[in-house]
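So, who can interpret the following?
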Amino acid sequence: MKSEHNLRILGLDIGGANIKAGLVEVSNGRIVECRTVVTYLPLWRVGKKKLSKELQEISTFLSKTDKIDGVGITMTAELSDVFKSKKEGVKYVLRNVESLWGNTKPLIIDYTGRLIKLEEAYSDYLSVSSANWAATAKVLTQIFKECILIDVGSTTTDIIPIVNHKVSVLGSTDIERLATGELIYTGILRSNISSIVHSIPIKGKETEIASEIFALSSDVHLILGNISQDEYSIDTADGRGKSLDECLSRLARIVCSDSDILGEAEIKKMAHNIYNEQIKKIGNGLKQVWSQSLFEKKLKARFPVVTTGLGGKILGKEAALKLDFRMFSDIGEILGIKDSQVIAAISIALLVAENRGEKLVWSTF
């Protein structure tokens, strides 16, 4: 039920390829309404000047005529090569946020899980760079005493351990997290096939693949039925369509062939092999995270794994299952959010609501 007393918070996860947004309406500690949207905006192609207009349109679409009481921000857009440096990227995003919502006193999450004001974010720009994982993890610390979060998005995978209601990561920045296994550069849509495999069995013979962007992980997952054409929300590698036949054609090209020569059955075998290698890649990161001393006396079969993101169940859960984890939850189902792609945006909105004095009611595990 709408009320003038309900708190309406806009959460934004501003990426270089996608903007994920959620407007959360909270009353008496509970979500009473949630509107979400995911917008594909490849900044490296359309240009950074498109960002402000797109953010405004998203805000208008979600808020309708309702007043927005607060804004929470996470970002990964600064890594886009439309910017010369992370510093330039972070500050550009912050200037756009300030221009649109400065009167609401936006809060930005840093990699420690703190919500900071614009002034501090400008001066300590690296602390808010690619910290969207910290928003989801911070919410999980209030729900789970211990768990491992596996968030598989379009481009990357985050593996975040939580112990004793605290985020227990070894890395903070992207480069540190790449070294600790907490950030895996593989995702369900945008990964170049040559970043997943270097060779593949073709009719029984191990065959090198072409180091070209002929196909993407999205082609693999559509061929296997893991995603729908609607979920294939990015540009294709060749600019053509997203039908099964077109995906088969692109995947065949990675071994300098085509679908007429290889046939659908052989190309589907290729897709299965690539899928399994992507699961292994995430599994290797999970093994590295689990090797920390804080898990020394823990049993995998009794340790909760929480998945989210478009590839959370398709890739993250499968990787964990192969390593003998057996307890699984989905954070979207816990929060009542249908679109798993917007979880970081919803999480930052909920954290801002708490910051504004709303005591949220959580089911704990």
